[in-house]
Amino acid sequence: MLVNVLFPINAGSFTYLVPEEFISAIAPGSRVLAPFRKKERVGIVTGSNAVRPADKKITLRPIKALLDPEPLIPENLLKLIKWTGQYYMSTSGLALKNAVPSGVLEGKKSGKSRITYDSGIRSAKAFDLMREQKEALSEINRTASGVFLLHGVTGSGKTEVYLRAVEALPEDREAIVLVPEIALTAQMIDRFQSRFPGKTAFLHSGLSAGERIAQWKKIRNGEIKVALGVRSAVFAPFIKLGLIVVDEEQEASY
Known about the structure:
With 254 residues, the chain is α/β, with parallel strands linked by helices. It is built from 7 helices and 9 strands, in the order βββββαααααβαβαββ.
C-alpha cells in the first residue's frame, strides 16, 4: 500500500510505503512519522496512491510510525488545506504549516495554557431584537446553507445577530467567527464567553505556542462550540462546522 504524506514545508506531498501493521488503521488525516532526507519528520497522510514511480531506480521508503489511533486532521480541514495551496498558487505544505500549530507537527508538548477566564461571568440575558435584526436572523436561519451579507453601521446590533445565529445551530454543529483585528477579538470575547461559557475558543497571533496547541486540541476534541479569531481561525479543526461569520468582511486585513 502506498500513501501520500504532506509535511509543513514549501512542497507538495511525498509517496511512502505503508508497513503491514499500519494498513488497517492508516487513513487520510493520519499523523505519521516518516523518513525525510537525512532525518525523520512528522507529516499528515493526504490519501492513498496506486501509482508507483516509473523510474525503477527510485526506492520508496516506509513510514516509521503511526502516531495516533485515529486521524488527527478532519476531512473537511484536509480538503481546505489542499484547496488553499492550489488556489493561491502556493503549496499544500505551506498551507498545512499555517493551518496546524507547529507543536502538533513537531512533537512539542502543549504545556499548560495560561488562558484564564473570569469564573464570575454569567450568561448574558437575551434582549428583544429590533425588527431589522429579526428579519436578518430569520433569513439566515430559514435555509440550511447560503451566503448572506449583513450590513449595518457600528453599534447597529450585528454582533447580537451573530450570537443568535450560533445559538440556532443544531447541538452538534459548530461556528467560526472571524474578525479583522486582535483588538476587535478582545471586544467581543466577553459577549461570546458569557453566551457560550466554557465553549468558546479564541485564536490569534498573541497566543503562545502552548496556548495555540491547547485551544486547537479542544476544538478538535469537540469541546468547543464557537471559535473566535482573526483570519487564521478559518482553519479551526471543527468536524461539523455549521456557520462561518466574517465580521467587517470589507477590511483589507482578510
